[in-house]
Amino acid sequence: MNNSVRWLLLSLCIPGSLIGQVRFSASTERTKIAMGEQAAVVATLVTNRRIPDLAIPQVASGGAFTVLKTHSQQSSSSSIQIINGKAIQKNEITTQFYYYIAPRQTGSFTFPALSVTIDGTPYQTEPLAFTVTNKPVSNPDVRAFLTLAKRSLYSGEQSLLTFRIAQRAQAQGSSDVRNGFNGALEKIDQAFGNDFALTRLFTNQITSGSERIDGEIYNVYSLRFLLFPLTAGTYSIPAIPFEYQELRRSRRRAVNPFFDDFFSGDFFGGGVQAIPKTAFTVPLSIEVKPLPPPPAGFNGAVGSFFLQASADPLEVPAGESVTLKVALKGNTRPGNIGDITVPRRDDYELFTPEKQVAVDTGETGLSTRKLYKYLLVPKNEGPLILNPIVFHYFDPKTASYKSAASDPITLTVTKGKGGKKEQTRYLTQEEIREVGRDIRYIKTTVALKHQSRYPYREPVFYLLFPLPFIFLILSLLYRFQSTHREHNSALQLRNRALASALRQITTIKKQASTLTPNDFLGRLAATIEVYISQKFGFPAIGRTLDELKDELLRSTNDEKTVAELARFIEQIDGYRFGGMALNDASRSSIINQTSTFLTGLEKGAKKEKQR
To answer: What gap in Å lies between CA 115 and CA 59, rounded to an integer?
Structure first.
């Protein structure tokens, strides 16, 4: 194949490869302007090769606006991807067309769609709508918003509360606003007081994005809560202050401005001065409605619920056990869901269940799942039908009471097995009570043979007589030793909790430079959770901050320690999710603070034990 044929095939393939890889769009910084101001429209064209003789798309000045100036610039980027072991190079050419326009009259106008034609294929942008006012448009650099998904709620109903901070994209004089979230969160907790419950998890993080507000682009940082009203009434939430810093250039002159700038560190111009500023949210008004008169069996659950029950095995001999599992799921907190009730009957025995609770968060809010495991022992042979288990709740969407019920379960109970198998069945509760009240003597009709008139004179009697006492002493020693061993192991684990945590912190400190910020902060958070679990004897992993504070107050009764824990966790969240810079100095500071905090928590626990 000669070179002319190759170039011909290449020229035929290029247009086909370009189709689907061309992107053409238009955007503007703001869509709300005033008379006498200008707006910039930027049209961006992205292709996979350079387009020769590409002219700026023409826009005719209409009666509502004038095109003051146009220009274009071009840039390129290249990347290599490895797909199925082959390296594929991807090239992109970005061409931007700038249009500077000025309005001629107040009202609204539309910047028309722009059009370019590449290899015979036309591409167009979307038109842009503008609003022109007489008064100068002065959008603040930082704005604060506190919004509630529903302003009218029932007592116990959850709603999504969003705290947003919007920073103008073109603002040059404000610092990183994410550093001010911790102070605002404390104000939010105080504003809602004891009439509402706010759920904020360890994994709750600040999300970021862009949004057009009053015709101008803002960078928006959001933090979400789940709000649960506790009592009925009408509440007014005051404006929440959000404190940030505005950066301004300042100059100061002494007798000799050269030396003044030199010693002030401002040799090349004015210095930067941080001016404290405050943005306020709009006050909220919330109406909390009381629940209607409840039906019988209602235990205060508000939301949407689902109940399911199953049994295993479905065929069992009489006297043998069946595991009855009941799963209840609802969109509320664990404390707002009461326990289910399984009816007791004479044809089976029902024992106290084992309960497991799991909490999860999603787009729709907080959800709780409770799993109950009952031990059920049928008494009689024949079919056994377990009636549906019913759970009553209030549905705020329909403003009515509803019931979640399981399907009936049919068990096949066969005849109980005799012989030695009979000894493996579970005792009924009545039998357990009977054993506790009296001694059941062994009765037999068989007469004993070869009885000696004086058995205590036999040599075997002297050999067997001390055996019961020896067995009793050995069993007591074994029981004492096992109990002592279990107690010592738990005590040793509790006593070594701080040393183990400090060793883990030392390891993290040595590896700090090689860990990513998420790994570094995640391992420190895990160290704190493991220490609390070992020291106070309850699982700290997976609990919300409110649940962890309540559990610590029950274990230590030290409000100061619990308050320090909350502040320290919020400080770690500021680095982990709040966008605070994490450098070598801040890593070292967090490690030192973690060691200091755990040591203080250990001292507080010892003082509480002595008291």
So the answer is: 10
Per-residue pLDDT, 123: 92
* Percent of the chain predicted with pLDDT > 90: 6
Domains 16-133 and 142-289 share a fold: yes
**450-489: per-residue pLDDT in tens?**
566 666 667 777 777 788 888 888 888 888 877 776 666 6
Helix, strand, or coil here: 187? helix
Q: Record the pTM.
A: 0.48
The CA-based angle 587-591-594, given to 5 degrees, is 135
- Where in the chain are the domains? 16-133, 142-289, 312-414, 455-492, 496-610
Q: What is the DSSP string of 102-154?
A: EESSSEEEEEPPPEEEETTEEEEPPPEEEEEESSPP---SEEEEEEES-SEEE
Residue 328 tokens read as: 């209840």
d(CA 529, CA 601): 13
Determine phi and psi for 203, rounding to 5 degrees.
-85, 0
Q: Please name the residues in contact with 345: beta carbons below 8 A apart, sequence gap of 6 or more.
A: none
The values of phi and psi at residue 475, to 5°, are -65, -40
CATH number of the domain at 16-133, out of 3.30.2430, 2.20.28, 2.40.160, 2.60.40? 2.60.40
Alpha carbon distances (Å) from 573 to 164, 553, 566? 17, 22, 10
Output the pLDDT for position 255: 44
Q: Which CATH number does 142-289 carry? A: 2.60.40
Q: Helices (DSSP H) in 438-544: which residue ranges?
A: 459-464, 467-495, 497-510, 517-536
**For residue 249, what are its two tokens?**
């250039």
